[in-house]
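TL;DR need structure tokens for one chain.
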Amino acid sequence: MKEKRQSEILRLIAEYDIGTQEELAVYLKEEGFEVTQATVSRDIRELKLSKVSDGGRQKYTAFHQEETVLGDKYSRVLKEGFASMGMAENLLVVKTVSGMAMAVAAALDAMKLREIAGTIAGDDTIMMAIRTREDTEIVMRKIEEIVGYAE
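>> reply
TL;DR here they are.
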């Protein structure tokens, strides 16, 4: 049932501009799935869905894990969503445009940088745990190259 529901979620977000968990739950119920907000939230997390801006409105999208290079899509999301960054030893904090942190974090994760131990995204802030202080500087340089940013 879970696989069927998650497959339906992927189909729905590809077909419709769905911007909230509540909207997604309504679509799922119309397709015959009885879901709670907690179930929808868990599915979104497990599917690693992100929100991207679509002409001023946010909508869910799925980034494919098999992509091993930072493609045009990820690069564009990173450039459009990035605001600033700062480091504290081996932690890197990236500030984004409001509502874009999850999409930017997905783009950063898609880079598959060995220096990054993990990322956590909120609404407009991403915290990245980096393996060492030196690795943090390397990651910052790589991000700066992509976004054309210099502090």
